Amino acid sequence: MRNKYILIFLLSIMLLLWGCSGSPEKISIGIIPAREPERMLNNFEPVRAYLEKEIGIPVTVTVPDNYFGLIESMNQNKVDIGFLGPFSYVTAEKQIDLEPLLFAARKDTGTSYHSLIIARKDAGIRTIEDLKGKKFAFVDPGSTSGFIIPSALFKSRDIDVNQYFSKTIYSGSHDSVVMDVLNKKVDAGAVADMNLRRVMDYAKIGNEEFIAVWKSDDIPGSPIVARADLDNTLKEKFITAMLLIHEKDPQAIKYFDSNIEKYVATDKSIYNGVRNIANILGEEFVNEHFLQKNQ
Predict the structure, then answer these.
(1) Which CATH number covers residue 180?
(2) Are 290 and 62 in contact (CB under 8 A)?
(3) What is the pTM (predicted TM-score) of this model?
Protein backbone atom coordinates (compact mmCIF):
# COMPACT_ATOMS: atom_id res chain seq x y z
CA MET A 1 0.00 0.00 0.00
CA ARG A 2 2.86 2.34 0.94
CA ASN A 3 4.52 1.77 -2.46
CA LYS A 4 1.23 2.60 -4.18
CA TYR A 5 1.03 6.01 -2.50
CA ILE A 6 4.68 6.71 -3.33
CA LEU A 7 3.99 5.87 -6.99
CA ILE A 8 0.92 8.15 -7.08
CA PHE A 9 2.95 10.94 -5.48
CA LEU A 10 5.77 10.58 -8.01
CA LEU A 11 3.34 10.52 -10.93
CA SER A 12 1.66 13.67 -9.62
CA ILE A 13 5.00 15.46 -9.42
CA MET A 14 5.90 14.36 -12.96
CA LEU A 15 2.57 15.59 -14.33
CA LEU A 16 2.99 18.90 -12.54
CA LEU A 17 6.47 19.40 -13.95
CA TRP A 18 5.37 18.39 -17.43
CA GLY A 19 2.46 20.81 -17.28
CA CYS A 20 4.73 23.66 -16.22
CA SER A 21 7.26 23.02 -18.96
CA GLY A 22 4.59 22.60 -21.62
CA SER A 23 2.51 25.65 -20.68
CA PRO A 24 4.55 28.88 -20.53
CA GLU A 25 3.20 31.39 -18.05
CA LYS A 26 4.02 34.41 -20.23
CA ILE A 27 5.49 35.36 -23.59
CA SER A 28 8.23 37.95 -24.03
CA ILE A 29 8.60 39.99 -27.22
CA GLY A 30 11.60 42.08 -28.25
CA ILE A 31 11.65 44.75 -30.98
CA ILE A 32 14.72 46.26 -32.65
CA PRO A 33 15.03 50.01 -31.97
CA ALA A 34 13.97 51.36 -35.37
CA ARG A 35 12.97 54.58 -33.59
CA GLU A 36 13.01 55.92 -30.02
CA PRO A 37 12.42 52.95 -27.66
CA GLU A 38 9.90 54.77 -25.47
CA ARG A 39 7.78 55.77 -28.45
CA MET A 40 8.00 52.25 -29.90
CA LEU A 41 6.77 50.74 -26.63
CA ASN A 42 3.91 53.22 -26.52
CA ASN A 43 2.94 52.57 -30.15
CA PHE A 44 3.12 48.79 -29.67
CA GLU A 45 0.96 48.78 -26.52
CA PRO A 46 -2.38 48.17 -28.35
CA VAL A 47 -0.78 45.23 -30.19
CA ARG A 48 0.60 43.87 -26.91
CA ALA A 49 -2.85 44.10 -25.29
CA TYR A 50 -4.45 42.43 -28.32
CA LEU A 51 -1.93 39.56 -28.24
CA GLU A 52 -2.42 39.09 -24.50
CA LYS A 53 -6.16 38.74 -25.06
CA GLU A 54 -5.83 36.39 -28.03
CA ILE A 55 -3.08 34.16 -26.63
CA GLY A 56 -4.46 34.07 -23.11
CA ILE A 57 -1.27 34.70 -21.12
CA PRO A 58 0.66 37.85 -20.14
CA VAL A 59 2.76 39.44 -22.90
CA THR A 60 5.78 41.59 -22.09
CA VAL A 61 7.62 43.81 -24.58
CA THR A 62 11.15 45.23 -24.56
CA VAL A 63 13.08 47.49 -26.93
CA PRO A 64 16.84 47.13 -26.36
CA ASP A 65 19.40 49.88 -26.87
CA ASN A 66 20.70 48.32 -30.08
CA TYR A 67 20.12 45.48 -32.55
CA PHE A 68 22.71 43.19 -30.97
CA GLY A 69 21.00 43.53 -27.59
CA LEU A 70 17.90 41.79 -28.92
CA ILE A 71 19.95 38.91 -30.33
CA GLU A 72 21.67 38.50 -26.97
CA SER A 73 18.34 38.50 -25.14
CA MET A 74 16.99 35.78 -27.43
CA ASN A 75 20.20 33.79 -27.04
CA GLN A 76 19.82 33.98 -23.26
CA ASN A 77 16.14 32.92 -23.42
CA LYS A 78 15.03 36.32 -22.11
CA VAL A 79 13.02 37.00 -25.28
CA ASP A 80 10.78 34.43 -26.97
CA ILE A 81 9.78 36.28 -30.13
CA GLY A 82 11.81 38.98 -31.85
CA PHE A 83 10.91 41.65 -34.39
CA LEU A 84 14.26 41.62 -36.21
CA GLY A 85 15.68 43.13 -39.36
CA PRO A 86 16.69 40.83 -42.25
CA PHE A 87 20.43 41.09 -41.51
CA SER A 88 20.09 40.80 -37.73
CA TYR A 89 18.01 37.66 -38.36
CA VAL A 90 20.55 35.95 -40.67
CA THR A 91 23.31 36.88 -38.19
CA ALA A 92 21.33 35.64 -35.20
CA GLU A 93 20.50 32.30 -36.83
CA LYS A 94 24.21 31.44 -36.76
CA GLN A 95 24.05 31.51 -32.96
CA ILE A 96 20.44 30.59 -32.20
CA ASP A 97 18.00 28.09 -33.67
CA LEU A 98 15.31 30.49 -34.93
CA GLU A 99 12.08 30.08 -36.86
CA PRO A 100 10.87 32.99 -39.04
CA LEU A 101 7.12 33.33 -38.65
CA LEU A 102 5.74 36.46 -40.28
CA PHE A 103 6.53 39.75 -41.92
CA ALA A 104 4.52 42.84 -42.76
CA ALA A 105 2.77 43.58 -46.04
CA ARG A 106 2.88 47.37 -46.43
CA LYS A 107 0.37 49.56 -48.20
CA ASP A 108 2.94 51.15 -50.51
CA THR A 109 5.78 48.63 -50.92
CA GLY A 110 4.18 45.24 -50.22
CA THR A 111 6.47 42.74 -48.48
CA SER A 112 9.70 44.49 -49.44
CA TYR A 113 11.36 47.83 -48.80
CA HIS A 114 14.48 49.77 -49.84
CA SER A 115 17.63 51.27 -48.45
CA LEU A 116 18.10 54.94 -49.27
CA ILE A 117 21.02 57.32 -49.00
CA ILE A 118 19.47 60.69 -48.31
CA ALA A 119 20.77 64.26 -48.13
CA ARG A 120 19.23 67.67 -47.72
CA LYS A 121 18.28 69.15 -51.06
CA ASP A 122 20.20 72.33 -50.25
CA ALA A 123 23.44 70.41 -49.54
CA GLY A 124 24.33 70.08 -53.23
CA ILE A 125 24.75 66.29 -52.96
CA ARG A 126 23.35 64.43 -55.96
CA THR A 127 25.64 61.40 -56.46
CA ILE A 128 27.72 58.95 -54.43
CA GLU A 129 30.79 60.84 -55.65
CA ASP A 130 29.44 64.03 -54.06
CA LEU A 131 29.59 62.30 -50.66
CA LYS A 132 33.38 62.30 -50.60
CA GLY A 133 34.68 64.30 -47.66
CA LYS A 134 31.21 64.62 -46.11
CA LYS A 135 29.85 63.54 -42.72
CA PHE A 136 27.74 60.38 -43.01
CA ALA A 137 25.29 58.62 -40.66
CA PHE A 138 24.51 54.92 -40.48
CA VAL A 139 21.70 53.54 -38.29
CA ASP A 140 23.30 50.65 -36.39
CA PRO A 141 25.83 47.94 -37.34
CA GLY A 142 22.96 45.45 -37.29
CA SER A 143 20.64 47.42 -39.58
CA THR A 144 20.08 45.94 -43.03
CA SER A 145 19.01 49.10 -44.85
CA GLY A 146 20.84 51.47 -42.52
CA PHE A 147 24.25 49.80 -42.68
CA ILE A 148 24.66 46.45 -44.44
CA ILE A 149 23.19 47.30 -47.85
CA PRO A 150 24.97 50.68 -48.16
CA SER A 151 28.18 49.04 -46.93
CA ALA A 152 27.87 46.49 -49.75
CA LEU A 153 27.35 49.39 -52.17
CA PHE A 154 30.48 51.17 -50.97
CA LYS A 155 32.49 47.95 -51.12
CA SER A 156 31.33 47.32 -54.71
CA ARG A 157 32.76 50.73 -55.61
CA ASP A 158 36.01 50.17 -53.69
CA ILE A 159 35.10 52.91 -51.23
CA ASP A 160 36.75 52.75 -47.82
CA VAL A 161 34.26 54.63 -45.65
CA ASN A 162 36.95 55.52 -43.11
CA GLN A 163 38.86 57.36 -45.81
CA TYR A 164 36.01 58.51 -48.04
CA PHE A 165 33.98 60.37 -45.42
CA SER A 166 35.28 63.07 -43.11
CA LYS A 167 33.27 61.48 -40.29
CA THR A 168 30.90 58.54 -39.83
CA ILE A 169 28.47 58.02 -36.95
CA TYR A 170 25.84 55.52 -35.85
CA SER A 171 22.71 57.51 -35.07
CA GLY A 172 21.08 54.51 -33.32
CA SER A 173 17.73 54.49 -35.14
CA HIS A 174 16.27 55.30 -38.54
CA ASP A 175 14.39 58.24 -37.07
CA SER A 176 17.61 59.65 -35.67
CA VAL A 177 19.39 59.39 -39.04
CA VAL A 178 16.62 61.42 -40.66
CA MET A 179 16.76 64.08 -37.96
CA ASP A 180 20.58 64.17 -37.98
CA VAL A 181 20.51 64.90 -41.72
CA LEU A 182 17.72 67.44 -41.36
CA ASN A 183 19.47 69.24 -38.48
CA LYS A 184 22.83 69.26 -40.32
CA LYS A 185 24.61 67.07 -37.78
CA VAL A 186 25.66 65.06 -40.85
CA ASP A 187 25.51 65.74 -44.57
CA ALA A 188 23.91 62.46 -45.59
CA GLY A 189 22.78 59.14 -44.17
CA ALA A 190 21.42 55.66 -44.84
CA VAL A 191 17.82 54.90 -43.94
CA ALA A 192 14.89 52.64 -44.89
CA ASP A 193 12.38 54.29 -47.21
CA MET A 194 9.44 53.22 -45.01
CA ASN A 195 11.04 54.84 -41.96
CA LEU A 196 11.81 58.04 -43.86
CA ARG A 197 8.17 58.39 -44.87
CA ARG A 198 6.97 57.72 -41.33
CA VAL A 199 9.30 60.32 -39.81
CA MET A 200 8.34 62.89 -42.43
CA ASP A 201 4.65 62.31 -41.68
CA TYR A 202 5.15 62.27 -37.92
CA ALA A 203 7.38 65.38 -37.81
CA LYS A 204 5.50 67.13 -40.62
CA ILE A 205 8.63 67.43 -42.79
CA GLY A 206 7.99 68.54 -46.36
CA ASN A 207 9.17 66.65 -49.45
CA GLU A 208 11.35 69.62 -50.37
CA GLU A 209 13.76 68.91 -47.51
CA PHE A 210 15.40 65.68 -48.77
CA ILE A 211 16.76 64.08 -51.89
CA ALA A 212 17.40 60.36 -52.38
CA VAL A 213 20.96 60.12 -53.68
CA TRP A 214 20.72 56.33 -54.07
CA LYS A 215 18.06 53.61 -53.78
CA SER A 216 18.65 49.88 -53.37
CA ASP A 217 16.92 46.95 -54.99
CA ASP A 218 14.06 45.30 -53.08
CA ILE A 219 14.88 44.04 -49.58
CA PRO A 220 12.60 41.36 -48.06
CA GLY A 221 10.54 42.65 -45.15
CA SER A 222 11.76 42.46 -41.57
CA PRO A 223 10.88 39.07 -40.07
CA ILE A 224 9.18 38.27 -36.80
CA VAL A 225 11.07 35.22 -35.51
CA ALA A 226 10.67 32.81 -32.62
CA ARG A 227 13.16 30.66 -30.81
CA ALA A 228 12.73 27.18 -32.28
CA ASP A 229 12.37 25.68 -28.79
CA LEU A 230 9.37 27.86 -27.97
CA ASP A 231 6.20 25.90 -27.26
CA ASN A 232 4.56 25.05 -30.61
CA THR A 233 1.03 25.75 -29.39
CA LEU A 234 2.12 29.18 -28.23
CA LYS A 235 3.78 29.87 -31.59
CA GLU A 236 0.63 28.86 -33.44
CA LYS A 237 -1.53 31.10 -31.26
CA PHE A 238 0.84 34.03 -31.89
CA ILE A 239 0.88 33.42 -35.65
CA THR A 240 -2.90 33.15 -35.86
CA ALA A 241 -3.37 36.32 -33.80
CA MET A 242 -0.98 38.33 -35.98
CA LEU A 243 -2.45 37.01 -39.23
CA LEU A 244 -5.87 38.24 -38.10
CA ILE A 245 -4.95 41.48 -36.34
CA HIS A 246 -5.83 43.66 -39.35
CA GLU A 247 -9.38 42.26 -39.18
CA LYS A 248 -9.85 41.87 -35.43
CA ASP A 249 -8.10 45.03 -34.22
CA PRO A 250 -7.15 47.30 -37.15
CA GLN A 251 -6.65 50.29 -34.84
CA ALA A 252 -3.93 48.42 -32.92
CA ILE A 253 -1.88 47.77 -36.03
CA LYS A 254 -2.48 51.31 -37.27
CA TYR A 255 -1.23 52.79 -34.00
CA PHE A 256 1.93 50.70 -34.18
CA ASP A 257 2.64 51.48 -37.85
CA SER A 258 -0.03 53.06 -40.03
CA ASN A 259 1.70 51.83 -43.20
CA ILE A 260 1.25 48.14 -42.35
CA GLU A 261 -1.70 46.59 -44.17
CA LYS A 262 -1.43 43.14 -42.61
CA TYR A 263 1.00 40.40 -41.59
CA VAL A 264 1.72 37.38 -43.79
CA ALA A 265 3.70 34.16 -43.38
CA THR A 266 7.38 34.03 -44.27
CA ASP A 267 10.16 31.42 -44.33
CA LYS A 268 13.95 31.07 -44.27
CA SER A 269 14.42 31.00 -48.05
CA ILE A 270 13.12 34.55 -48.51
CA TYR A 271 16.30 35.86 -46.87
CA ASN A 272 18.81 34.01 -49.06
CA GLY A 273 19.68 37.26 -50.85
CA VAL A 274 20.55 38.91 -47.54
CA ARG A 275 22.67 35.88 -46.63
CA ASN A 276 24.51 36.26 -49.93
CA ILE A 277 25.27 39.93 -49.21
CA ALA A 278 26.51 39.02 -45.72
CA ASN A 279 28.75 36.36 -47.29
CA ILE A 280 30.12 38.87 -49.82
CA LEU A 281 30.95 41.30 -47.02
CA GLY A 282 32.61 38.43 -45.19
CA GLU A 283 32.62 37.02 -41.68
CA GLU A 284 35.48 39.32 -40.68
CA PHE A 285 33.40 42.36 -41.63
CA VAL A 286 30.39 41.12 -39.65
CA ASN A 287 32.55 40.37 -36.60
CA GLU A 288 34.35 43.71 -36.73
CA HIS A 289 31.36 45.95 -37.34
CA PHE A 290 28.56 44.10 -35.58
CA LEU A 291 29.40 41.23 -33.24
CA GLN A 292 32.67 42.42 -31.67
CA LYS A 293 31.62 46.08 -31.68
CA ASN A 294 28.67 45.26 -29.47
CA GLN A 295 30.44 42.98 -27.00
Answers:
(1) 3.40.190.10
(2) no
(3) 0.82
